[in-house]
Structure formats: structure tokens, C-alpha cells
Design brief:
This protein is of the alpha+beta class. The chain contains 2 helices and 4 strands; from the N terminus they run ββααββ.
């Protein structure tokens, strides 16, 4: 039996982007993260699982409080680096959306997804 612990559609502000103006003012980012546990949670004890509060705090610390970066891929990598270090995390899938990303034409949604370990895909 596999267990997935997740935080979906966490909306927050950050100063990230390729263009200088993107790093000067807050922009909206929407982050979803799913982790598969190595071992099932036991005895109704949070310590045997992955606390979704930990996932949300990690996202917040990287996106809202962390250093400004150019690419959403880098944000994903920074979050994965922290989350994958948890003792009970087997796999990580992260999705970052940037609804107001500057693009040459109206419409569309900028999205980056990453998986850890490389090549893994969680089904949500």
C-alpha cells in the first residue's frame, strides 16, 4: 500500500523571473506538491508520516522568503532538495504555476513540474 501526502494549489507571492521587473515586485505562484511515503504511517502518530505543514512551510520559505531566482525549475529544485531529505519521503512531484507570467500572446498558463528521483511520476 502506498501513501501520498500532498498540498495542492498553495497560492503565494514571490519575486522570481527572467526579467528584472519580475524580480522587483511580488507575483503570484501556485504550488502543488505530492510525496509518496517510504513506509506507511503507524499508530496515528504524525512523526511516522510527512506533515503537510512541513510541505507548506518549505514552499513558503523557498518561494516567498528565499532568494530571487530566474526560473521556476530552480524553485522546484530548491523545494525538492529540502523535502527529499525527509526520512520517510520516497518520491516527490512538484508543480509550480505562474498565472501572470509574461508571454508574447494572451492566454495560456506557465507551468513547470519536476519529479524526484529523476524519471519518477506520481499519480495524483
Amino acid at each position: 500500500m502506498s501513501t501520498i501526502v500532498a498540498v495542492e494549489n498553495y497560492k503565494l507571492k514571490g519575486k522570481h523571473g527572467v526579467f528584472d521587473f519580475e524580480r522587483e515586485k511580488d507575483q503570484t505562484f501556485i504550488v502543488s506538491i505530492w510525496v509518496t511515503l517510504k513506509e506507511p504511517a503507524k499508530n496515528d502518530e504524525i512523526e511516522t508520516s510527512v506533515d503537510y505543514g512541513f510541505l507548506q512551510r518549505t514552499i513558503h520559505d523557498v518561494v516567498a522568503r528565499g532568494d530571487s531566482v530566474y526560473m521556476m525549475e530552480t524553485l522546484c529544485d530548491k523545494i525538492i532538495e529540502i523535502v527529499s531529505g525527509h526520512l520517510n519521503v520516497a518520491t516527490v512531484r512538484i508543480r509550480i504555476e505562474k498565472p501572470d507570467a509574461p508571454m508574447p500572446h494572451n492566454g495560456g498558463l506557465a507551468i513547470v513540474e519536476r519529479y524526484w528521483p529523476e524519471g519518477e511520476m506520481l499519480q495524483s
